[in-house]
Amino acid sequence: MAQYTRVSGSVGLITLQSPPVNALSAAMRQGIVDMMQRALSEPEVKSVVICGQNGIFCGGADIKEFGGQMSGPPLIPMIHAIEAASKPVVAAIEGIALGGGLELALGCHYRIAHSKARVGLPEVTLGLLPGAGGSQRLPRLIGVPAALDLITTGRHVTAAEALKFGLVDQITDHNTVNVAVKFAQRVADQPLDARRISTYPCLCPSDVAVLFEEVMQRVRRTARGAIAPIACVQAVRAAATLPYNQGMERERELMATLFTSGQARALQYFFFAQRAVGRWSMPSGARWDTSKPRPVHKAAVIGLGTMGRGITVALAQAGFSVVAVETQEKQLMEAKQAISGMLERGAKRRGVAPALDKINYGRNIQSVADVDLVIEAVFEDMALKKKVFQQLSAVCKPSTFLCSNTSGLDIDQLACQTRNPELVVGMHFFAPAHVMKLLEVVYGPKSSPLAVATAMQLGKKIGKVSVAVGNCRGFVGNRMLKPYLEQALFLLEEGATPEFVDQVLEEFGFAMGVFRMSDLSGLDVGWKVRMADGLAMPDPTTGQPTRLRQGRRYSPLGDLLCEQGRFGQKTGRGWYQYDKPGSQVAKPDPWLHSFLDEYRARHALVAHRIDHQEVLERCLYSMINEGFRILEDGIAAGPEDIDVIYVFGYSWPRHHGGPMFYAATVGLNKVLERLEHYYQAHPDVPSLQPCHLLRKLVASGRPPIQKWREVIKKVRSQL
Ligand SMILES: C[C@H](O)[C@H](C)C(=O)SCCNC(=O)CCNC(=O)[C@H](O)C(C)(C)COP(=O)([O-])OP(=O)([O-])OC[C@H]1O[C@@H](n2cnc3c(N)ncnc32)[C@H](O)[C@@H]1OP(=O)([O-])[O-]
Predict the structure, then answer these.
(1) Which one of 476, 579, 663, 669 is separated from 386 by 20 to 30 angstroms, measured CA to CA?
(2) Which residues does residue 287 pair with via DSSP β-bridges, in sequence order?
(3) Catalytic hit among 94, 123, 614, 632
(4) Which first-to-last residue range defines the signal peptide (predicted)?
(5) 59 C-alpha to ligand 1 centroid (Å)
(6) CB 335 within 8 A of CB 309
(7) 563 phi and psi, to 5 degrees?
(8) Ligand 1 touching residue 75 (CB < 6 A)
(9) DSSP bridge pairs for 113
(10) Could you say which of 42, 83, 94, 103 is catalytic?
């Protein structure tokens, strides 16, 4: 766990050894305590260096230990002992020093970092705060404003920025441990009192009270109900206003509250869920570790509308050569301009040169003959997509992977248009495609593990969180969105207003409620799909909009708005009114309220009082229920896949872990009982009928979410 060697005669070298990130597990902490005592007890040793094995200093506390009984020496006194040591201790930081890892380094008297190292206190992303003295030492070392920024955002900073902050004393391009050992020899006789950060005064800007007020307001606004960011501000405020020991007491109190909170459990579940989706599997048994991807050097994008432009930018920014094809001359010219602009702005933000030379534009599909992978992003029309896949199959090399950015059309139908259907998968990006992290990689019955592995690896290389899912209408994300949207419309029919429904969902933590989100993405997008499905047609006999389709309840409210050109932000009118087309500030629209009253009267609907609970339960539980159907169908391999899709693709509040983790938190028996309650009231709404898998999980004693995959396997084997 921690190895001790004496180097250069007088330096005790303590090496943290616990792959992959030298996390501070109980055994590691014991090792550090023992090795420090040894170094301090050996008279020949004049100074100490702490470093990490494998070019990584330390990834912080061992998150895997959080769920269990904490044992071993606690971190705070361990770090205090290092700070109080009679011999100088130098931290040699390579790779990363995060969370407790940076707090360990802050307990040392000096910090030497490699120029490529990154440091930070990301505890807030795990629903916690820097609970080993970081919230008290960091403000004393780098000042309150910078400490507030690092601790409330959890962002990692480069070695260069850390040096500017005074967070590290020196950075090097050479072997950091060797540099640190020489440094330790040089400072062996230096007095240490001035190097013990906990003794430093916490220098505050004159307007510190105003600063904390502003930061607290900003944090409350962006936290959307998350409690850790607020506690982080309170902890740093303690550093600015209290002596160190009292500040540490305040840090301990705040950490104790967070550590046992549901939000911390949700965020830590999500930390591991993000990593679990990379270990994908298919119902055929093919898996991430048995399916080797084929390298992609040159890619192509067909169709340079909004999505095609974003995908092209994402590929070029990641260093891929891209052939960008748009058959319409005008559209091509506009796309070139837009893409160049996006690349230049992105490059400026990242301080690098824009990858303009990575892209070759063309109007002819022939120009993609030699690429390794094609992403089709033409208009969402099956007939058009089929034609494009036929052309691609004829033009491209037999080994070329053909991928579609469709947001829900049948991948298998596209595969059947090609010579090599096993090389066809969906790569469903989310708008804006060069910004949104999520990528649904969709495999059809003919898709080969090779194609899935290649698309998943490409997703990772362009900075996406890729989730492998099966082929069905709407895949995972949009399939679960349908009952959510449906319930929102039914609630309007029954007496709610768009403002109220959105308020409830935004208080829950969504960045945008369902109606503000629909106005942003455009009501006409869904309308065209419903028209194509023959759903938006009036009743053939009465010519009136009908509220029943194939025995199922249907709300034509969205269709009626579209028939009046109310497409949302783009037309300045939708579920809300906007100052002008394109403006983003949604205002309640009296016209819509009277339109709803008339609609209810026309359909003999009696409005009733709808409270927060009903809105939340009907919108979220119907979505969750569809999530269980997706697991039962094997479209998603596990709950983590669904939760990662919803957090990264549909702004589900991360501090609630995702729809499936939230269901586990609420209690599956409660979700089941409430769905039964609503289904009884609305028997013509099948999405409220509890799914068999949900019943099965409740019947088998509501196992923890980590155990659901076993139950799913059993249920699927009985199907
Ligand atoms: C008191 C104190 O104040 C508090 C309370 C704390 O200190 S709280 C803890 C604060 N520390 C953090 O928030 C850092 C969390 N880690 C990361 O941000 C990243 O991991 C990384 C370090 C930047 C590397 O990224 P990567 O992309 O190269 O690899 P990876 O796939 O992510 O990670 C590689 C493998 O290491 C595992 N892992 C990473 N960090 C870990 C940690 N801190 N504890 C346990 N396991 C960890 C991870 O699950 C994965 O396992 P597996 O999936 O292979 O089985």
Answers:
(1) 476
(2) 281
(3) 123
(4) none
(5) 6
(6) yes
(7) -60, -20
(8) yes
(9) 93, 171
(10) 103
Q: Which atom from ligand 1 is nearest to the alpha carbon of 100? A: 7
Protein residue closest via CA to atom 52 of ligand 1: 275
Between 612-632 and 639-649, two packed helices, what is the crossing angle to 10 degrees? Answer: 130
What are the per-10-residue average pLDDT scores of the chain (719 residues)? 96 97 98 98 98 97 91 96 98 98 98 98 98 98 97 97 98 98 97 97 90 96 96 98 97 97 98 97 95 97 97 97 96 96 93 93 96 96 96 97 96 97 98 96 98 98 98 97 97 98 97 96 89 74 73 93 95 97 95 97 94 98 98 97 98 98 98 98 97 95 93 83
Left if phi > 0, otherwise alpha if psi is -120 to 50, otherwise beta: which for 555?
A: beta
Looking at ligand 1, which residue's alpha carbon is closest to its atom 18? 59
Domains, the chain, in order of start with CATH, read 2-259 (3.90.226.10), 298-475 (3.40.50.720), 514-597 (1.10.1040.10), 612-718 (1.10.1040.10)
Instruction: Give the chain's end-to-end CA distance (angstroms, integer).
Output: 47
Q: Which residues of 330-341 are buried (b: 16+ CB within 10 A; e: fewer)?
A: ebbeebbebbee
* CB of residue 251 inside a 6 A radius of ligand 1: no
Instruction: Convert the pLDDT of each residue in 355-373 to its tens digit.
Output: 999 999 999 999 999 999 9
**Digit-coded pLDDT (tens) for 8-55:** 999 999 999 999 999 999 999 999 999 999 999 999 999 999 999 999
Tokens 């974003």 sit on residue: 310
**Active site annotation includes 42:** no
For the full predicted model, state whether its pTM sits above 0.90. Answer: yes
Nearest to 118 by CA among 72, 155, 91: 155
Whole-number Å distance between alpha carbons of 285 and 247: 54
Closest by Cα among 678, 635, 531, 362 to 645:
635
